[in-house]
Write a structure and sequence with these properties.
The chain is mainly α and 174 residues long. It has one domain: UraD-like, CATH 1.10.3330. It is built from 8 helices and no strands. Helix 2 (35-45) crosses helix 8 (150-173), helix 3 runs antiparallel to helix 4 (64-76) and helix 4 (64-76) packs antiparallel against helix 8. It starts with 27 loop residues before the first helix and ends with a helix.
Length: 174
């Protein structure tokens, strides 16, 4: 669920629409897997024990849309401390190796400014983008989000974290 209106200057650069194709064999392997295995997989999608437990404990899911809706619901319930912990576990977005050095310099400076202002690393979902579009998307996102105040950015970062978690889960199921 992407918010339709957020306060202030919040910016989440638009991504191409993605279709949710059911995993091969449906959700039966996910629904039938042992709880500890499902929780371990979910923790690779979003580093929050409570989130992983909630999603795993509400199995079985009838379809991918129900699973992803449960992922969103569990993520919306993260406390500020849980959100901070999950954000701290995130790595910088992957960018192609052939990105020229001036872009790396600009990106490094933007990452440092972002982390200094907000106290956690910059995260952004790049699902559906080609490698050639990734750098521009990251630079546009970080520059616009640096204009947010900390509370506005917490909302945006939480939304990006939810998008990342759902994309990772869909990849694991595929």
């Amino acid at each position: 669920m992407t918010p339709t209106h957020l306060p202030g200057r919040v910016a989440i650069p638009a991504l191409p629409e993605q279709t949710r194709t059911p995993p091969p064999g449906g959700l039966e392997p996910f629904n039938a897997a042992p709880p500890h295995g499902v929780r371990a997989t979910l923790l690779t999608c979003l580093h929050s024990t409570r989130w992983a437990e909630r999603v795993a404990d509400h199995r079985p899911y009838p379809d991918i849309d129900a699973l992803l809706a449960a992922c969103d619901e569990a993520a919306y319930d993260l406390t500020p401390a849980e959100l901070s912990h999950a954000l701290a576990a995130e790595a910088l977005p992957f960018l192609p190796e052939d990105v020229y050095s001036a872009a790396h310099t600009a990106l490094s400076a933007a990452y440092a400014a972002y982390e200094a202002k907000f106290g956690h690393g910059f995260i952004i979902c790049l699902d559906g983008l080609s490698h050639t579009e990734s750098l521009d998307h990251v630079l546009a996102g970080i520059r616009s989000r640096l204009a947010n105040d900390p509370e506005e950015e917490r909302v945006v970062a939480a939304e990006e974290l939810r998008r990342l978690a759902k994309g990772r889960l869909v990849s694991h199921l595929a």
